[in-house]
Amino acid sequence: MATALDTSPSLTLSNALPLDSGQVLENVQIAYQTYGTLAPEKDNAILLCHALTGDQHVANPHPITGKPGWWDRMVGPGKPIDTDRFFVICTNVIGSCMGSTGPASLAPDGEPYGMRFPVITIRDMVRAELALLDEFGIGRLHAVVGGSMGGMQALSLAANFPDRTARVLAIATTARHSAQNIAFHEVGRQAIMADPNWQDGAYYGTGKEPDSGLAVARMAAHITYLSEAGLTHKFGRRLQDRQAVGFGFDADFQVESYLRYQGLSFTSRFDANSYLYITRAMDYFDLAEEHGGRLANAFAKAQSRFCLISFDTDWLYTTSDARNVVHALNAVAAPVSFVELSAPYGHDSFLLDVPALDRVVEGFLG
Amino acid sequence: MALRSDLRVIAEHVKPGSRVLDIGCGDGDLMAVLSQEKQADARGIEIDPESVEHCVSRGLSAIQGDADHDLAEYPDDAFDYAILSQTLQTAERPDLMLDELLRVGREAFVSFPNFAHWQVRADLLFTGRMPVTNRLPVTWYETQNIHHLTVADFEDLLREKGVSTVNRWFFHREREIGHFAANWRAEYAVYQLSR
């Protein structure tokens, strides 16, 4: 739990935020980071949307982990998303825990929301992002860019607020969460809620947090971000600091040790309730359902150029998920590019060193 | 930009400001010319991911896909022109492909190598082996050309389908030749078609 350590600029939205659930969030705080300079005409802004456990620290060292930002390799001066030309802005999504209003924030009664926080949707996240852009006076974006859940936000923005962006770049993403996607998320949520320290979500200030549950949730999810070939290549059946299996339940295998480390380190920077809320938002995501059951309808008013990118080893959001979006865009004759890139890293490929991705991103942004 | 002759003749006959679908767009050379010289709204379909990547990195709209299946995703009349250059002979069903071209496009440009060119005929007659020429450079076991056709075959198909020929051009060695005895003389042909 990290909110206090974060040094991001943040801003309280001028207006209350209406949510898909029918509820309204007051005094919404949005933490963000910007890179580059906003042109006087305010026409060079790129909104980056982060993934489930990402945050606004795109290209600066992370205030908690000290590691480089999650897209440091993509965003910066002279990089594919060139901050010498573009004003790049990334907000922490609502429901998260890096400075934007979420379940760990204080409700109007002065106590943390916990499970009283309203269930939010991807479209609610986008509403909050657009409200922040309004505060900056940015009308139409040069582009909205995101991978994974960030790609869902990008698609949602294009579908629901078609005049707000000239380009949409959606990477390793989908227009709807599948049963398998929901199933993996449910495993994670149940792990958190089964942890006695979760205390029905009211763990703030008790000195006990559901770290074990959150770590297991992260471990399960992390497997879905990697390819089987990638795991085999990285770990195989190699043993961790030992010559033979221990006939016990220590981390005998390197892959176990790795997952345990990933799970544990995650708890130092993420709030368990945020994990519940954000995975729920992703599970609710079905762009077609929002638009009469037909995905093409979602894009009927789209005024943007689109680019969809998938990775051949990504089994979380597959090439066929991306193609569904492309087909819907074709059906409304929207200008769309699509390419499946070859990379060995599974879903995580969008964050890693894939030179072809750099070229496509740079070329598409123009 | 230096375009292959069949693409050049197509580029010259696309009306300015048109919506164009280039099927088998390769690295996007034709789309680039159409966008720059004709202010066309050009889209491409290409099966090779590296070529698609190249198109997108040039700022062109291209979709990685397969012409045999992905044309079905486009609505009727989505484009002013559908272009199929040197690809008809690789289609699973060239006749159905032609239907699709003229469904998504009001007009179509189709170019193809002519298997009845005299050199091809001579090759087959004298060597008794499947011809390997400039325009058909790949051995029979490696070629993607699974439906070889001739100018005469194509015109028969157009007649059967009641497709009108707006214009046609024939080429030998990258140079345009007249219509006389085209089925003997043309290495490849370009047709502009309408429903």
Describe this structure in words.
- The complex is a heterodimer of chains A (366) and B (195).
- With 366 residues, chain A is α/β, with parallel strands linked by helices.
- Chain A has two domains: 256 residues, Rossmann fold (3-Layer(aba) Sandwich), CATH 3.40.50.1820; 98 residues, Rna Polymerase Sigma Factor, Chain: A.
- Chain A has ten helices and twelve strands.
- In chain A, helix 1 packs across helix 2 and helix 3 packs antiparallel against helix 7.
- The radius of gyration of chain A is 20 Å and the shape is globular.
- With 195 residues, chain B is an alpha/beta fold.
- In chain B, 35% of the residues lie in helices and 26% in strands.
- The model of chain B has no long low-confidence stretch (mean pLDDT 93).
- Chain B has an eight-stranded mixed beta sheet, with helices on both faces.
- The chains are: A alpha/beta (366), B alpha/beta (195).
- The interface between A and B is medium-sized, with 23 and 23 residues.
Corresponding CATH architecture of chain B: 3-Layer(aba) Sandwich
Q: Strand pairing plus helix content of chain A: what structural class? A: alpha/beta
Number of helices of chain B: 8
Distance linking N and C termini of chain A: 39 Å
The H-and-E topology of chain B, N to C, reads as HEHEHEHEHEHHEEHE
The residue-averaged pLDDT of chain A reads: 95
Tally of separate domains of chain A:
2
Low-confidence segments of chain A, given as residue ranges, are none
* Largest sheet, strands/sense/barrel of chain A: 8 strands, mixed
For the sheet with most strands of chain B, the description reads: 8 strands, mixed
Rg of chain A, Å, rounded: 20 Å
Global mean pLDDT of chain B: 93
- Helix % of chain B is 25-40%
Helical percent range of chain A?
A: 25-40%
What is the tally of beta strands of chain A?
12
Strand percentage of chain A: 5-15%
